[in-house]
Amino acid sequence: MLRIGPVQLASKMLLAPIAGHTDLAFRILCREQGGVGIAYTDLLNSHAILRETRRTLDLAKTNEFDRPCGMQLYGNSEDPLPEAARWAVDRGAQVVDINMGCPVDKVAKKNGGSLLLRDCGSTTLLAARIVQAVERHSGGRVPVTAKMRLGWDPDHMVAPILARQLADVGIAAVTVHGRYTVQYFSGKADWNAIRQVVEAVPQIPIIGNGDVSEPEHAAALIATTGCAGVMVARGAMRTPWIFRRADELLRTGQVGPEPTVAEKLRVVLRHLELSAEHEGETRTVIRMRQHIAWYGKSMGHIKPLKEAIRTSTSVAEMRAALLAAEDEYARLEGPLVPRARRSEALPGREDLAETDSDARF
Ligand SMILES: Cc1cc2nc3c(=O)[nH]c(=O)nc-3n(C[C@H](O)[C@H](O)[C@H](O)COP(=O)(O)O)c2cc1C
């Protein structure tokens, strides 16, 4: 089974950091569905952490149902990342992750993210400082990991060399998203390039990431790359039960049936309740209007429900719309009604524009 430093994971499937989506409610939702080895927070700015801004405190919120929890930080060599990492340990992070892959201008032009791929030497020194700070502060309990893209552009494929240098200074695992910064989310993730990283760095687990939207893709990514674990982002926003199904496939060679539409609606309803509990009414209403577009992609024709959610102004209205739809599907669904079974391509940039996070990622 997958181990990140001293942290033993119960599954090889990891929930990615997804800015604007992986709040506490969503992380718990995915965990409740089963098969999540670890889940990460959104990326957190090191300065905002030390100022303890309200937004950062919200994003870093965790509890006993959110274990193990990875907190992802971003910053550059001049930023107070070691101090922020110590703060994350005090706030309950079992793993501290450094973002080396965010392509968004606001982050990558000055604050870190993919910028760290441009100077491997100083990035490695920065990582060494963070590892030392966290090691001392946590007594070796909390490992530090990194999440990177392949490089800034295809002429600068740095992931194998950078990952090796990071392993040498004590980084416990590296996640590789098989795209370059300049690609954003276009094209296909290059799984063969991920394999090169796995081969270059045998001493620590390499987690593969990119374009896993069905359980079978997770098995194929491991078969192609030899990676130790699989991280999923967009697939989880559409199908939070993907971890359970992929974990089952990886453990047993068999994958259980996809949930029915009525079952999926129950999951959306659970998301609504968790979000209302942990994120509050206003944020929940805004978020669920976005999330329903993602969930809808695996549910066939649910346009009226999507419309009802998009025009709802309260959690109560959303709950009523979901309950009505769930009843309807539970009544209709059966051998006569074919269940929606999709394996369409993951959403591209245009679809991402449906979310407010597009502005950030
Ligand atoms: C809306 C959105 C927000 C994201 N936010 C983060 C983030 O905060 N930190 C990070 O390391 N990656 C972030 N990513 C990248 C994902 O973690 C992941 O590397 C990428 O989407 C590829 O995986 P996928 O094909 O499973 O989606 C984000 C991606 C999307 C679509």
Q: Could you name the key traits of this structure?
A:
361 residues, alpha/beta, TIM Barrel, 2 domains, eight-stranded parallel beta barrel, two-stranded antiparallel ribbon, 16 helices, 47% helix, 14% strand, disordered C terminus, binds flavin mononucleotide
Low-confidence stretches: 335-361
Helix content range: 40-55%
CATH architecture of the largest domain: Alpha-Beta Barrel
Averaged pLDDT: 91
Overall domain count: 2
Trace the largest sheet across and list its strands: 3-4-5-6-7-8-9-10
Which molecules are bound besides the chains? flavin mononucleotide
- What is the ordering of alpha helices and beta strands? EEEHEHHEHEHHEHEHEHEHHHHHHH
Number of helices: 16
What is the CATH class designation of the largest domain? Alpha Beta
How would you classify the quaternary structure? single chain
Q: Let me know the CATH homologous superfamily of the largest domain.
A: Aldolase class I
**DSSP strand content:** 5-15%
Looking at CATH, which topology of the largest domain would you report? TIM Barrel
Please state the CA-atom Rg, rounded to the nearest Å.
20 Å
Number of strands: 10
State the major sheet.
8 strands, parallel, barrel
Structural class: alpha/beta
Q: Give the CA-CA distance, first to last residue.
A: 31 Å
